[in-house]
Amino acid sequence: MASRNTAKRRKKEQSEYFFDYSLLFIVLFLLGFGLVMIYSASSYEAFQDFGDEAYYLKKQLIAIIIGLVLMIFVANIPYHFWERFALLGYVVSMALVPLVKTPLGVESHGARRWIRIPGIGLNLQPAEVAKLCMILFLATMVCKMGKSVRTMKGFIFMILLPLPVVLEVYLITKNLSSAIIILGISVLMVFVASPDYKKFIVMGLLGIAAVAVLLFFIISSGGEGGFRSERIVAWLDPESAAQGKGFQTLQALYAIGSGGIWGKGLGQSMQKLSFLPEAQNDMIFSIICEELGLFGAIAIILMFIMLLWRMMVIANNATDLFGAMLVVGVMGHIAIQAILNIAVVTNTIPNTGISLPFISYGGSSVMFLLIEIGLVLSVAKRIQLKEL
User: In the 8-state DSSP scheme, what is residue 10?
Assistant: First the structure.
């Protein structure tokens, strides 16, 4: 009798908690691989500029350690705890963006998109805060609205909610890529919450038509509409702007092409030797292709696919709608950012600054991505093991 009760108790304990070690392993692998590639891509430039070839590696490692601590902290807190801070997060994210125009703002590479945190010597990018807060806020709103989100009025309301933050990020920081990502996360979350796909088909067709009209006018004007118009012209014909907006794209394509199938070998890139701007940031995927070839590029893409698949499993088995929507938001963030980064590097879309999740250099980005992974792990821990 005692042994039977013990067996039942063990079975109950086993069904109470689940930890997704596969998800954690993939994230740690991407972080470790990212550190290796950041050192490889930045060592020459870091030595030239700072006299320390591991300068960027050390800064990224510090950000990762902080991010991992925050991830563990968030993963061990019930995710419903954060629901009460959803509106506050939305307001705070809107309040942080204008601070880039104050004395706290930090300018780098001609862009003013960071704020200095006094006392700890770290810079924070408000757009990264906005991405996390938008996921939390929309997940909360979807749960509060319930079935009304499926109506036309509810659909329009949910689509309008992120627009103030999107416009603020774009107009104040001139960060079009982050604005697109925040809007993309929002649309994806509303798409999952609403089973009526006709609205999204119409919205998609209108978006394609608007982009086509915009491209027509830009091409007709010869790119005389500011630096974004020049980037679009350089995207269509990089060689026509080889010394201007098309320079970075051409150098990235040279790196990809010279890597072949197997690559030149780790650390053997030529384009990182001051030829390719931002080699450790937005263009790190081209260095991966050059040093590890098509094989390395496909391997990394497969790792991202596995990461998204694990998140999909967690979202499908989440114990409630709020948890599922949190995971969907994080999944959308990582998927959109990875796809756009690879598309930019391969010149599939016009060049805009988008980092490769977990791999590109960037402290704010990796810290907030790890916090989002902490949320996903928190949702996974509440899943009964027998459900998987």
Answer: H
Residue labelled with tokens 């692998």: 29
Structure tokens at 55: 């300068």
- Evaluate whether 41 touches 280 at the Cβ level (below 8 Å): yes
- In our burial notation (b when 16+ CB lie closer than 10 A, e otherwise), range 99-136 reads bbeeeebeeeeeeebbbbeeeeebbbbbbbbbbbbbbb
- Interatomic CA distance for residues 323 and 80, integer angstroms: 8
370 contacts 361 by C-beta, under 8 angstroms:
no
Question: Which residue in the block uniquely carries the two structure tokens 């939390």?
Answer: 136
Query: Coil, strand, or helix at residue 114?
Result: strand
| pLDDT tens string 246-280 | 788 888 888 898 888 898 988 888 888 878 887 88
Residue-level pLDDT at 312: 94
d(CA 259, CA 240): 24
C-beta neighbour count of 341 within 10 angstroms: 23
What does the block give as tokens for 292? 């590890």
Nearest-CA neighbor of 31 among 369, 296, 380?
Answer: 369
Give, rounded to a whole angstrom, the gap between the first and last alpha carbons of the chain: 30
pTM of the predicted structure, to 2 decimals: 0.90
Per residue in 66-93, pLDDT (tens digit) is 999 999 999 999 999 999 999 999 999 9
Own/partner pairs, 380-384, CB within 8 angstroms, 24+ separation: 380/18, 380/19, 380/20, 380/23, 380/314, 381/17, 381/18, 381/19, 381/75, 382/78, 382/79, 382/318, 382/319, 382/323, 383/18, 383/314, 383/317, 383/318, 383/319, 384/15, 384/16, 384/18, 384/319
Q: What token pair was written down for 33?
A: 């691989």
Task: Parse the chain into domains and list their residue ranges.
Answer: 29-76+237-388
